[in-house]
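thoughts on these tokens:
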Amino acid sequence: MNDQKIASLMPIEACKRLKSAQSIVVVGSTSSGKSTLIYTLVNHKIIPYISIGVGDKCQTTIIPCDFLFDERITKNEYFALQIRIKDFSFNPIHIKFMEMLTKLYVANGYDIEEAMDAFDSNFMNGILEPADASYHLGRIASKISIESIKQIVESALRHIDNAEESFNARVKRIKAAPDKRTVSTEAVRSIVMEDMWSELPEMLIRKYQNWLIEIGVAIQNRLALCMGIDHLIDITREYSTEYNDVLPYGGEVLQHLFDPYEPYSLIVENMTMVCRPREVLIHELRNMFDKRIPLRFCIRDTMGLNQISMDGNSMKDALDIALNCSPDNIILLMSLQERDDVIFKCCEAINSKSSKAKKLGIPINVIFTKADIAISNIINKSTRDTVELMQEDYTKHIFPAISSIESKINDYISTLKEESTSWLSIRYLDENIDPIQLALNEEESDTPELKQQKYEMRKHFRKEGLYKKISDILYKTQLKILPSGIKSPLFVTVKNTELPAVDISVDKKTLNQVFMEIQNTLTQDKATVNGYQITDTRRIHGQSVIRYYSNLQIGLGYTTNAYVYGNFSINMKGMLKRVLKNNIPEFSNLYESKAIKTLADNIEEVELDRLIEELDNTKTMTDSAFADVNPVLLEYLPTKEQKLQVLHLIFRNYFASSEKFYMVFDKVAFNLSYGNIKVHKMVNDIYHEPSFTYDEIIRKIQTGFLELFSSENFMELLAQEIGNAMTELVNKMFIII
């Protein structure tokens, strides 16, 4: 393996190797520099086409996106896009529509004619482009018929106006109830509108639903046209940023998908962009990595982390989302432009999640950003002779300003449990126009010590400082994944690049008793079952259902606190992880029961030899693999099977650490709650069924979980997911060639 050289790959081939690449989630509030960090990693040929969604602005793309970088992609202009499509759900649009319509109806004194006169393009803009930016429909406004929905709404309001009990009378009656007096009148009006809307004639409701469904069709058609395909399916395609290349031109596709105001978030579940990283990043990392090891890693820009506020609760939520992505590492950015009290609150939030991160073996690297702006602000407030800020002011005050910033950062760091902290500019200017670097470049009468001090300081304001930090994170992450004593990933040639090099499988029959106990807990234990079933008989609010579904998709629970509607507190992933942990206390139980198998059908025997040679260079596992076996048996055992036994022992030893246990079962719990394709389909089929009310949706989803856990298929699913999680972890040790 030592003579292995980097082989070139096309982007689509690099995409097939995604699971074996290190993954890093970047967490940062608005304007913390997260988008700029991604910008500094993507190569210069791609950046012009995605910069519409990357930059110093509040609104960024709301489609979860992974950026896979692989040095083996030889051309900067080549890239691949992997798009995962989801069923269109009109639920978020419906909730916003009901909210806006209620306000319109009330504001116009419950008068239908006046309400319909006010039902104009301005009113529709509030629905097409909601203030919370949860979705965007403005780009397809011309495809959405205002006249059609006005006719539907007018008919609906006439039914509501002619109801036996009027809208206003219902509001007063509900508001007067003893347990509803503390509820705002606006909230009660929303309840009444939702109730009366659900009581409309079925034909009218169907017309309204068809109008919503047509919005989904318009989005699907727009994306299909953008991608140059006839109908939408999960696809992976290669493109070039150059016209008349061997690959089709994809500049416009990138611009569409990274435009934050396109409507695609309602039909795209996730996308992966695969390209070569910036050349300067490759060069910088060569100083740390073995030149034979290709630079490849994945930056995850996950929905829910794009527009978080800089406060403690938002930071906790963001870290929970990041940890539930099961990354290999987390980079957390905090802007030094924020107030001290805000940053200290965020540090407390980080500490509250540090134990969870340590259990999962996921380091949190805290980087304080916008240091250049913070330093400039300090210098700007210093005593000077001119109104204008001059270069001389920077030269004069640069050391006290940097010392002041470092003192503050040290105060923040002193409260953090995390060991990996640093500070950077994240906004990079050429040293000839950067006043901070110009001040630090002054070398008149500098002592050798001062020259060295300035040199170290300049790193914080140069892109090389960021690249050094990234390279350090990547290097440490790779070492963490590898078995003890192994310093670099192993090259493996496989028969099929879409399959893992080494496969770990779990035999459900062997673990039948353990699995039955898990199944009994999930289906028979009253406390557990009531914990994920909807026991409140009152109607569940639609907004609560949407929030629960959104959180379920990213591995979080949701707790309601409604006064009028029904309440619930459900965390499917957390509940499953707890049950699994209680019944499978450690990996040794699985190995001792002979439930785990190690397979290597996707590699030739010569590759197996090389793997064992690297993973067991002391021959410890090789010597002990057959220590107590009758030699006669070995005469009948093929050589590859003998080597598989050695490999099995190597990985048994690898999984012995508790850190790996938490990593694996965290992934298993998420997949059983949403990530597995069968669970995913069960949940989405119910959620996207237009004939179900919101209350029916959440009750049917939770009943669906009970039925799934009760089925014989659940045992198979559980064994499969444990094996998949172990397989994914093992294969991150390899570079597939």
Q: What stands out?
A: DSSP finds 32 helices and 15 strands in the chain. The chain has three domains: 11-86+234-481, 91-219, 503-736.
